[in-house]
Structures are given as structure tokens and as C-alpha cells.
Automatic annotation (TrEMBL):
Keyword RNA-binding among UniProt keywords: no
TM regions (residue ranges): 47-65, 77-96, 102-124, 136-155, 209-229, 241-263, 275-296, 302-323, 361-380
Pfam families, A to Z: MFS_1
The name this protein goes by in its record: Predicted arabinose efflux permease, MFS family
Length: 387
């Protein structure tokens, strides 16, 4: 029998639970929005509007969920998230119109606040202190396959049994797979590791300013990430490539994200997370510049964007932990990421309108946002360890 170290076992368990959570919530509308709307007599835009409302609720609840994890640990919160997400999916499967559909997505939004990356990162920070970095990377590496697994499975269920059955199956999986996985997580207690962390690395001299700067960085990153997720094939077509080439290029984003996360673990883990974050914010602008000036293939842009997005996801957990320490990490994480979650809600609509009016010129907005994020990160100094 293969035996894993406790830390590796924690990473594998939480990463598997996160894969299920993301596949059954955030990645659901891409497959089910159209069949949902068709049967309920709605426009697909109304389904996405309900999803956007769920994301806004997730952003609002993030700091409170993080504070609860700081106080009690994340095991109970993550276990409860499986029940809440399952409830939202059941109501979604039974929806008869816009009111019940909106209710289902709002409940799902509560579950996402309790059960996606922010809660997982806060849990790891509570359990492992500053040594959580490798586990955060491992969790994002596993959950990076959420769309790879979730989209085909959701599409298969919808084609064979309908979208209502697809929602029902995901609800059952939360109870029979997700809940047992989160139940296996250790309970949080006062950790000597965390206490030593607090003594060994002071926070930045101006922590509130640093939090505001990080909030912008991640809001910009999440806006760009969500905009590309919704519109990348269409955007690449605006550069002159065919639909088949655009779709094939866009499909490289997922593998690029995973490859970048492996690279972060292998090459950048011994450096401060600020380094990885600065690299992450430069890759999208570099890709856009090469696409516009020297005609780099669409696949090259997709690879650079995907790599940057993969590194940014890790940085959203590791950078606040490294700068501020594990004490109060959950609530602080929720506050920093809240603007990013809100930007996710509006990114598809805003960037879609920009493409309609400017075509591939819409890349100037995403490039500018990420370049400014790079400059912001250069303004943040690494706190010196006092010994």
C-alpha cells in the first residue's frame, strides 16, 4: 500500500475536493446555460445574469467566511460547502422559471464562497502557516483539471439525460465524494508553526496600502482571466485566424496553466512569491504585444496567457500569506480577493462589448491592466526577516 506524508495527503485530498467544487459550480454555465434557457423559456443572458449575481454574492461573503476559518479552521466550512452546493444544484435541477433559477444560483454563490479556492487557501494557511505554499500550488495543480474533467462530464450527462439530471448528478457527487473528502481534512488547532511564523517574518511597513495594491493586482488578473475564458476564441478570430484555429489555440490555455504551476513548484518555490506574481502579470502583455507586432501565432498568445493565469492563481494564495503571515489570513484573503470576484461577474459582458466595438484592439485594455499590475507589484517590497 502506498503511504503519503500527511502534507501530501492533505494536498491530494483538498485538491480533489476543489476539482469537484469548481467543476460543479463555476464551470457549469458554459455547458448548461443554453439548454437551461431553452427549456425555461429564457434568454441565455438571463442564466449568465444569475451566475453573475452568484459571483457577486461570493465576493461579498468572502471576508466573513475567511474570518470564520481563522477562528475555527476550514474543515467544518468546507464540509458545509458540499451541503450548500448540493442544495443549490438540487433547486437548479427543479427550477421552473427565473425566480427559482436565481434562487438556485444565489445558494450556489454561498456555496462557492465557502468551498472554492479562497476557503481552501485559508484552510491551508490555518493548518500549515507559511509552509502552506507548496500545498497551495499542489491544490491549484489538481484543481486546474476541473474544466478538463467537468466540461466533458457535464456535456455527456446533458446529452444523455438532460441538464436537470446533470445538476442532480453533481449534487449527489458532493454528498458521496466531496463531503467524505473534506471530512478527512484535519481539524485546526493552535499551531506552534504559525506562532513561529508570526515572529520570524514581519508584515509590510504599510500593510493597508499593500492590501489595496494586491486587491488591484488580483482584480486586474481575474478580469483578464474571466474575459479570456469567455471570449478568447472570438478574440483570436478578430486577429484573422479561422474558427478552428482559434478554438484549437484557446484549448492550450488549460495545459499552459498546469505547466506553469508545475514550473512554479519546480523552479520558483525557493523565491519570494512576489517574483512569481511579477512574472505572471507580464506574460499576457508580452503575448499581446507579440501578437500585434510580429504576428505571433494565436497558439503562442494562448500559451503565454495561460501560463500567466496559472501563476496568478497560485500567487493569490501564496503572496498574501508570505506578506502578512497566517494570523488573520482567511479574513484578509477574503478582503483582498473580493474586488477580483466582483470583476469576474462583469468581465464577460464588458469585454464582449469592447470586442464588438474594437475587435482585437480590445487587447489594449487587458494589456494595460496587467502592465499596471506589474508596476504595482514592483512598488511592494519584501519585508525583511528580523533575527
Amino acid at each position: 500500500m502506498i503511504r503519503f506524508s500527511p502534507k501530501l495527503g492533505l494536498t491530494l485530498t483538498l485538491g480533489s475536493a476543489q476539482t469537484l467544487a469548481w467543476a460543479s459550480s463555476y464551470y457549469l454555465p458554459a455547458i448548461l446555460a443554453v439548454p437551461m434557457a431553452r427549456e425555461l423559456g429564457l434568454s441565455p443572458s438571463w442564466v449568465f445574469a444569475a451566475f453573475s449575481a452568484a459571483l457577486l454574492l461570493t465576493a461579498m461573503l468572502g471576508p466573513s467566511v475567511g474570518r470564520l476559518i481563522d477562528q475555527q479552521g476550514g474543515r467544518g466550512v468546507l464540509m458545509a460547502s458540499n451541503g450548500v452546493l448540493a442544495l443549490g444544484l438540487v433547486i437548479m435541477a427543479l427550477a421552473q422559471g427565473m425566480v427559482t433559477l436565481m434562487l438556485a444560483w444565489l445558494i450556489t454563490g454561498v456555496g462557492m464562497a465557502m468551498g472554492l479556492y479562497d476557503a481552501a487557501f485559508a484552510t491551508l494557511g490555518r493548518l500549515l502557516g507559511r509552509s502552506a505554499r507548496s500545498s497551495i500550488t499542489g491544490v491549484t495543480l489538481l484543481a486546474g483539471f476541473a474544466s478538463t474533467i467537468g466540461w466533458p462530464l457535464t456535456a455527456l450527462l446533458e446529452n444523455e439525460f438532460g441538464w436537470r439530471a446533470a445538476c442532480g448528478v453533481w449534487a449527489v457527487l458532493h454528498i458521496v465524494v466531496g463531503l467524505p473528502l473534506n471530512t478527512c481534512l484535519p481539524k485546526a488547532g493552535d499551531s506552534a508553526v504559525q506562532q513561529n511564523d508570526e515572529k520570524s517574518a514581519p508584515p509590510p511597513e504599510r500593510p493597508r496600502l499593500a492590501m489595496v495594491l494586491l486587491a488591484y493586482v488580483f482584480a486586474a488578473g481575474w478580469f483578464v482571466s474571466t474575459a479570456m475564458a469567455a471570449h478568447l476564441p472570438r478574440l483570436l478570430q478578430e486577429t484573422g485566424v479561422s474558427l478552428s484555429v482559434a478554438v484549437a489555440a484557446a484549448a492550450l490555455v488549460g495545459p499552459a496553466q498546469v505547466a506553469a504551476r508545475v514550473g512554479e513548484f519546480a523552479l520558483l518555490r525557493h523565491l519570494h512569491p512576489l517574483v512569481a506574481a511579477r512574472v505572471a502579470t507580464t506574460l499576457h502583455p508580452i503575448g499581446a504585444a507579440l501578437l500585434a507586432t510580429v504576428g505571433m501565432p494565436a497558439a503562442g498568445f494562448a500559451l503565454l496567457h495561460g501560463a500567466g493565469n496559472g501563476l496568478m492563481t497560485i500567487a493569490s494564495g501564496t503572496l498574501p500569506l508570505a506578506l502578512f503571515g497566517p494570523k488573520g489570513f482567511g479574513q484578509r484573503q477574503g478582503l483582498i480577493i473580493a474586488p477580483a470576484r466582483a470583476m469576474q461577474a462583469f468581465a464577460p459582458l464588458l469585454f464582449g462589448l469592447l470586442i464588438e466595438h474594437n475587435g482585437a484592439g480590445a487587447l489594449w485594455l487587458t494589456t494595460g491592466l496587467m502592465l499596471l499590475a506589474t508596476l504595482v507589484l514592483l512598488c511592494i517590497r519584501v519585508p525583511r526577516v528580523q533575527g
